[in-house]
Amino acid sequence: MDERILKYFDDELNSADRLALLRQIEGDDELQRQFIEYKNMNSLLSLSGAANNEIADRRSLNLFRSRLKTKKLQMLAIRIVGYAAIIVLLVGGTWWNAAHFFSKQISPLAVNTLYVPAGQRIKLTLQDGTDVWLNSRTTITYPVVFGKNERRVSVEGEAFFEVTKNPRKPFIVTSQGIDMKVLGTKFNVDSYSNEQELKTSLIEGSLQVLSPDKMKSVILKPNEQVTVKGSLMSVTAIAHKDQFLWIKGIYSFTDEPLGNILKKLELYYDIKIVVEDPSISTWVYTGKFRQSDGLNEILRMIQRIHKFKIQKNEDTNEIRLSI
Questions:
Q1: Is 178 helix (H, G, I), strand (E, B) or coil?
Q2: How far is CA 10 from the centre of its chain?
Q3: Whole-model pTM?
Q4: 108 contacts 116 by C-beta, under 8 angstroms
Q5: 222 pLDDT band (50/70/90 cuts)?
Q6: CATH 3.55.50.30, applies to 249-322
């Protein structure tokens, strides 16, 4: 690992050295690989910091980062970045637990799988420089190194892609048996398994979406989205772009039935919400919430507009709403 990369992320380089490093990375594949891997590891560490706001947790994370400067632990840590286990470990553990985990001998895998826990999000940079934002309870599977002919990843959940252009090697996202093929673009995939439909929204560029049987396809233009349910594919205009603010940690709803919002909150925070009075689900709500506010605060904010009672059962991980 080039020591300048460690200093870059610790903000220990002056502006001239930072610029020199970034210019060198553009023409050095090995240096670029090290930079991306360490950037991903810092994203995972930041995820843990967002989940645990206690001062002691922040100190333990800083201590763990400092320990990573030792070469033995540094090399082992970099090789484990793609594992889903690292997130669970860092969200609930201390630097010692992480260091103990890294100290075991781990063989590199051809394919990595990353899972984002409830109430969290993460930004990941793939080997080709493509940036991917992953929403709560989302799983992405991706190769350590892309093949010669294509760049293929699979997603379950919600992900926002900013794809690095490469006309010779198309980027393909697979979800629920549906392929989305791009050369370079920005788009959002909403494909949680329990929703039984996939919605892809194109922000920039061009995107081809194929049906599960590969017999039909649509070409999306910017500001269009396609909803796929079974063999049916319907294209509509994107009504509210604020819905994609989740990549910045903001959940935005515009003229949305409260029933739909509650389903999303169940998904994002991994909890059961029972609506005892059906009329509650029909109420329409517009608002924005920070993901870090947490479910209880979000419900209290909605409660200021629409009056309902909240009862929470910690034992069953269930919330009941009534009038």
A1: strand
A2: 23
A3: 0.69
A4: no
A5: very high
A6: yes
